[in-house]
Model the fold of this input.
Amino acid sequence: MIPHDERDGAAAAPRESTSGPGSQPAVFRAAIDAMHSATVHPDIELGPIRPPQRLAPYSYALGAEVKHPESEVVAEQSDGDAFGRLILLYDPNGDEAWNGTLRLVAYIQADLEAALAGDPLLPEVAWSWLVDALESRSEPLNALGGTVTATSSVRYGDIVGPPHAYQLELRASWTATSPELAPHVEAFAEVLAYAAGLPPAGVTNLGQRAGH
Done:
């Protein structure tokens, strides 16, 4: 997952984040409200987590995890088979590299089957999930970029889990042109659902779960 000190490539020098609701600008507050109005796959659990503190004057973060019957907890450091983070960064003065004031930073990790992990087109396909999810919602954005990495590992000795493991990691960031961020959250959750191999299903309102 994204460490708290890991920078979006477009971020400026370290700055102290402001977290108190009374000190938050209206645009930033509206963006958070919009994030909580998103509707997502019912098997994906979303909830607030501790945001990074030094990437922008204001920041907010959602953790995402594919739910399993035995657990419905959204963990900041998840050991689940598919999870992610969506971080909102806000700089009222704008950022030249962002080409805007509202930057979204996404991270997704999912376990893969061996056959899928060996597909040389997997990175291109995974990136197309994000591009298509954003474009299908007709949400204007700027400066979209990121990486997709497919990894394999072998476990030895007393390590719990299958001897061979395969994972997909997607890191991306883009600039929203308005605080209407619900479609961006929905696009992020759609990519997580694809990565986790979830079947199509109805949607659940995040605001109802979060009590927002």
